[in-house]
């Protein structure tokens, strides 16, 4: 079976020995990937000292019925910008459909909808994103920096953030205890 050319709808998992410490044990939901570059939302770490209610308060939005869930560290690019990765049962202007699997929305409308109990049935919130220029992610893939696995709702919405990286590998049939930072060529 041929590997997909683009990784939209896949999870990108950092391999041991990732040269950039910001991505150690990273789990990134790939939302955009084409010849121009790539964008993904990190779901492997939480932001310290801020929850969803604080974010809504900072934006002047009443918390309404919204749960006070933790916020993910989406990535090092634009860490002040918020994103909601959610089920396709809600869509608004500017929402990006991700491989018929998820939807990515970065507008205040979705925050208001969630607070009013009219938002998507399942969602994760993140600040920042991971981004790559044209060919950059492909180069990192060739250097064994990343492993890909199909994304699924259980990993995205149900899995504890502290075990998401290992669970994603396990779901792909990989025992993380056997992974090493060393690699070579045959």
UniProtKB/TrEMBL annotation:
GO cellular component, one term: cytosol
Signal sequence segment: none
Record SUPFAM superfamilies: VC0467-like
Family: Belongs to the UPF0301 (AlgH) family.
HAMAP family recorded: UPF0301
Protein name per the record: UPF0301 protein DF286_12675
